[in-house]
Design goal:
It is a multi-pass membrane protein. The protein has 454 residues and is mainly α. It is built from 19 helices and seven strands. Among the domains are: 113 residues, Flavocytochrome B2, Chain A, domain 1 (Roll), CATH 3.10.120.10; 152 residues, no CATH class.
Length: 454
C-alpha cells in the first residue's frame, strides 16, 4: 500500500535508526498497521507516535528509561504511553526526529488493534483538561513537609536511644519508627522518580537520588527501569516485572491453568495463600529487592547509585554502632527491612494482585490501566499509610501527576469510566488486603484442578 507497502515486503530488520526501507532519512514513506506490527522483534523494532512511524531498533539500547519499557511497545501505537510518561513531550521529541522513517497511510486509523477511537479521544480530552488546570504541577511545599516528617521520624528514633538507652521496649519503638520512615521514604522516592522523568539535571532527579539512595540505601536507576515497565504494561505477563513470581506463585486466572496443563509444580500452589505469609511480605524487600539492587548496580557499573547507597549504610552504622555494635546494628536494619517489607507488599499488592492478569492484549491506555488497578477508599490514614497510592487508578493513568492532586481528578476519571462502561473499582482497606489472599487461593485452586484433571 503506497511506497511503504512494496518497500517492507522483506522481514529483514532496518539497518539503523531513522533509516527507511529505501535508505531515506526523515521518513517520507507511508505504512499500514500490518507493516508496522511486523517489526516487533528484539533486533527489529518500530513504533508509532501521533501517526508517525519510528525505527527504534538501535535507540532502544540508549533509552533513558531502559530498553525494556520502550521495547514493550514495539510494533504498536505508543502515543498514549509516550504522553503519559514524559513530563515535557516536546523536549523528548527532538530525540525522535532522527528515528523518523515515515507515517501511517491516510487510510489507516489512528488507533491500532481495533481500539475504541472514541474512548481514546475522550481520555485525551481529559488529559488536556488536567494539563490546562495545572494538575500535573507539583507543590514543592507539600513534598518539603513530607520529607521533613520522614527526617523527624529518623531523628526521634535516634534521639530516644541517646536519651533513654537501649532497653527492649525502646529498641522496638525505635525499630517501628525507622520502619515507618523507610516506608514513607519509599513512597516519597516513588513520587520523585515519576516527577524526574527526562530531567536528569532537575531538582526532582537530585532529590530522588538522595531519598532512594541516602535515606533508603537503594538504586534510583534500578527502580526507574523496573517500575516504569510496571506502569507501561501492568499485570501483563513477561512485561510487568511486578508479577514475575519466579515460579514461586501462580497468579491470575490463566497462568495457573497453563502451569497445571503443563504439569508444572515448582511449589505446592494450592497452598500458596498460606506460604505467601512466610515468603511474600517478610522477604521481598530485605532479600529479593536487596539482591536485585546490588546485582544491578555492580553489573551495570552504576557507581553513582552505589555511592548513594553506601552513604545510607555508612550513616546508619555510624548512628547505631555505639548502641548495638556491628552485629546488633545488622540485626536492627534487618528487622527494620522486615517490617517495612510487610508494609510495602500489602500496599502495592492490594491494588494489583486481585485484578486481571493476562498476556498482551493490546488495549488502549485507560482500559489497560483500569483492568489492572483498583482504588482503596480515601481517608486521612489511608492517604498517609499508602503514600496516596490508594488512588492507584489515577496514579496509573497520570503517572507524572503529583499525589496531592489525585483526589481532584478522581471524579473526572470515574465519570469517564461510567460513560464508556469501564469498571472503576474502589475497596475498603480491609477488603483490599483480604482480596490478596483470596486471589492467591483462587489461583492455587485453578492450578490444582488443571494439574489433576487436564
Amino acid at each position: 500500500m503506497g511506497g511503504g507497502g512494496q518497500q517492507t515486503e522483506s522481514s529483514e530488520p532496518a539497518k539503523g535508526d531513522g533509516v527507511g526501507p529505501d535508505g531515506e532519512r526523515g521518513g517520507s514513506a507511508v505504512y499500514t498497521w500490518e507493516e508496522v506490527q511486523r517489526h516487533c522483534h528484539r533486533s527489529d523494532q518500530w513504533l508509532v507516535i501521533d501517526r508517525k512511524v519510528y525505527n527504534i531498533t538501535q535507540w532502544a539500547k540508549r533509552h533513558p528509561g531502559g530498553i525494556r519499557v520502550i521495547s514493550h511497545f514495539a510494533g504498536e501505537d505508543a502515543t498514549e504511553a509516550f504522553v503519559a510518561f514524559h513530563l515535557d513531550p516536546n523536549f523528548v521529541r527532538k530525540f525522535l526526529k532522527p528515528l523518523l522513517i515515515g507515517e501511517l497511510a491516510p487510510t489507516e486509523p489512528s488507533q491500532d488493534q481495533g481500539k475504541n477511537a472514541v474512548l481514546v479521544q475522550d481520555f485525551q480530552a481529559l488529559r488536556d483538561r488536567v494539563e490546562s488546570e495545572g494538575l500535573l504541577r507539583a507543590r514543592p511545599l507539600f513534598f518539603s513537609l513530607y520529607l521533613g516528617h520522614i527526617l523527624l521520624l529518623e531523628a526521634l528514633a535516634l534521639g530516644l536511644l541517646w536519651v533513654w538507652g537501649t532497653s527492649w521496649s525502646l529498641t522496638l519503638l525505635c525499630s517501628l519508627m525507622l520502619a515507618t520512615s523507610q516506608a514513607q521514604a519509599g513512597w516519597l522516592q516513588h513520587d520523585y522518580g515519576h516527577l524526574s522523568v527526562c530531567k536528569k539535571s532537575g531538582w526532582n532527579h537530585k532529590l530522588h537520588k538522595f531519598v532512594i539512595g541516602h535515606l533508603k540505601g537503594a538504586s534510583a536507576n534500578w527502580w526507574n527501569h523496573r517500575h516504569f515497565q510496571h506502569h507501561a504494561k501492568p499485570n501483563v505477563f513477561s512485561k510487568d516485572p511486578d508479577i514475575n513470581s519466579l515460579h514461586v506463585f501462580v497468579l491470575g486466572d490463566k497462568q495457573p491453568v497453563e502451569y497445571g496443563i503443563k504439569k508444572l509444580k515448582y511449589m505446592p500452589y494450592h497452598h500458596q495463600h498460606q506460604y505467601f505469609f512466610l515468603i511474600g511480605p517478610p522477604l521481598i524487600v530485605p532479600v529479593f529487592f536487596n539482591i536485585q539492587i546490588f546485582r544491578t548496580m555492580f553489573s551495570q557499573r552504576d557507581w553513582v547509585d552505589l555511592a548513594w547507597s553506601m552513604s545510607f549504610y555508612l550513616r546508619f552504622f555510624c548512628c547505631y554502632y555505639p548502641f548495638f555494635g556491628f552485629f546488633g546494628s545488622v540485626a536492627l536494619i534487618s528487622f527494620v527491612r522486615f517490617l517495612e517489607s510487610h508494609w510495602f507488599v500489602w500496599v502495592t499488592q492490594m491494588s494489583h494482585l486481585p485484578m486481571e492478569m493476562d498476556h498482551e492484549r493490546h488495549q488502549d491506555w485507560l482500559t489497560m490501566q483500569l483492568s489492572a488497578t483498583c482504588n482503596i477508599e480515601q481517608s486521612t490514614f489511608n492517604d498517609w499509610f499508602s503514600g496516596h497510592l490508594n488512588f492507584q487508578i489515577e496514579h496509573h493513568l497520570f503517572p507524572t501527576m503529583p499525589r496531592h492532586n489525585y483526589h481532584l481528578v478522581a471524579p473526572l476519571v470515574r465519570a469517564l469510566c461510567e460513560k464508556h462502561g469501564v469498571p472503576y473499582q474502589v475497596k475498603t482497606l480491609q477488603k483490599g488486603m483480604t482480596d490478596v489472599v483470596r486471589s492467591l487461593k483462587k489461583s492455587g485452586d485453578l492450578w490444582l484442578d488443571a494439574y489433576l484433571h487436564k
